[in-house]
Each structure stands twice: as C-alpha cells, then as structure tokens.
Amino acid sequence: MKEPILCYVKGPWAYFTTQPLKKQWGDDWDDAPYEHNAGEPYLPHEDEDKPWEIIKVAWDGDFDTPDHYAINTNWSVRNINSKCIPWLESASFMNKRILIWAGTKFSAFKSLIKRGGGKVYVEEP
C-alpha cells in the first residue's frame, strides 16, 4: 500500500489517506468556512473494490492552521486540499518558515513537525 498523504487537520489531529487526494472526501468538504462545516474524512465502505485507509495522528508544536488567520475563513477543505493555503504553517515568531501542504506524505509530515520543534504521536499497533 502506498504511503498515506495529508488530507485534513482539525486541532491537534492530522488525517492521512492512502487514496488519491482528489478522491478523498468528508462531510461538507466543499463548504466554507471549513472550520465550522467540515467533518472528519470519510472511511472506506466494506464493499469497496480498492481498499484504502485513513490514519489519524496527534501532533503538537508551534504551527498555525488556516483558521488562525480569520474567525470565519473563506476556505473549504476542497480549497485547502487544492493547495490554496497550507494545512500547517510555522508560527510567525519562529525563525524558520515551514509549510505543510495537503498531499504531504506521512514521513515528510513527521520530519517537518520535528524540524519545527514539534512532535507527532502515533498509536502503537
């Protein structure tokens, strides 16, 4: 199975999918503001021909999500996943600018969070 890619961030949670980003969907992912409308990514149905997964991990660090910039953003999850703005950006007081975009592979996500002084928490199998 291919490496999961970032498809959604809500608070301290990051969600990754193993299917193409354009195919991944969730409740109200086409509605803005995403922070008041969007739900978690849909999980695959048991009868799907091509199985895929959603991986949910916790992250911690000095990063801002798109809703940090406005009370009611103009973005939907669909917009963010089309890369109009990153899911996570290093806080403005940090000396280095780190951007984490939709479609970022899980291994790169872990490295970028760590580079920004943060941590990623994954459930043990």
> How much strand?
15-25%
Gyration radius from CA atoms, angstroms? 14 Å
Strand count, sense and barrel status of the largest sheet are: 4 strands, antiparallel
**Unreliable segments of 5+ consecutive residues:** none
How far apart the termini lie comes to 17 Å
How many H/I helical runs?
A: 3
Global morphology: globular
Secondary structure: number of strands: 7
Mean pLDDT: 93
Structural class: alpha+beta
Order of SSEs: EEHEEHEEHE
Helix content: 10-25%
Order of neighbouring strands in the sheet with most strands: 1-2-3-7
What would you call the quaternary organization?
Answer: single chain
Describe the structure.
The chain has 125 residues and is of the alpha+beta class. The chain has helices spanning 34-37, 77-81, 106-115; strands at residues 5-10, 13-17, 54-60, 63-64, 88-90, 99-100, 119-121. It has three helices and seven strands, in the order ββαββαββαβ. The longest helix is centred in the C-terminal third of the chain and has 10 residues, at 106-115.
Condensed summary:
The chain has 125 residues and is an alpha+beta fold. It has helices at residues 34-37, 77-81, 106-115; strands at residues 5-10, 13-17, 54-60, 63-64, 88-90, 99-100, 119-121.
